[in-house]
Amino acid sequence: MSSASLPLTPNQLIGGTPTLTYFNVAGTKGRGEVLRLFFHEAGIAFVDNRVQFADWPALKAKIVASGANPFGSLPVLELNGRNYTQSVPLLRFIANKLRKYAGSNDDERYFVDQVCCDIYIDWRHSWVTTLGGSAEALKTHQTEALPRCYAAFEFFLAKYDGPFVLGTDFSYADAALYQALNDDGSLESASLAAQYPRLKALADATAARPNIAKYLEFRKQYIPK
User: Fold this and answer.
1) For labelling alongside 192, which of 177, 201, 207, 215 has CA 20 to 30 A away?
2) d(CA 44, CA 11)
3) CA pair distance 154, 78, nearest whole angstrom
4) Tens digit of pLDDT for each residue in 49-96?
5) The whole model's pTM is what?
């Protein structure tokens, strides 16, 4: 087989080696962490620029001044001299470049988008309010947003014959749902399987994927002792 006929690597498909700049949120959490998870699943080599919170004020000013992100937020993905922001659009952007992980037809692409762009974002907005340490915000998230969003995830997971959002085909929405469960601390919850068996099946199947399993072990080093 000639080199011209060899399949393109994931990095060739996306156009290079990206640099992902995002916080180290307890080693395993946050908007940018789902991108790290997805990149490892897809076999994308990338520069993982983990930002410490003490360094954030100076970096934020630089990001705004440079135009990398006028909102002054992370994650920021740099690829071939261009900056891209916002975690869910980035998931979709990379999946489209890979020609994989986003569905094989318009209906599937819509369905993945529906789960990831509406319900997951609603969940994420609520989860972020808990980062300030407010007991009231945590209670509201756990008693209102979490059960509402988990019930919606469970409902949509019934559409295909699981364990993933598109059945047996892994998508970027599955990475997002796994990350939601991780950030909530629900992966080890005894009630997850009882109340949301499809979500539990998705979590187990995601964690068992070879590239993701390796990354989950690797990222333990970043968890604060």
Assistant:
1) 215
2) 6
3) 34
4) 999 999 999 999 999 999 999 999 999 999 999 999 999 999 999 999
5) 0.95
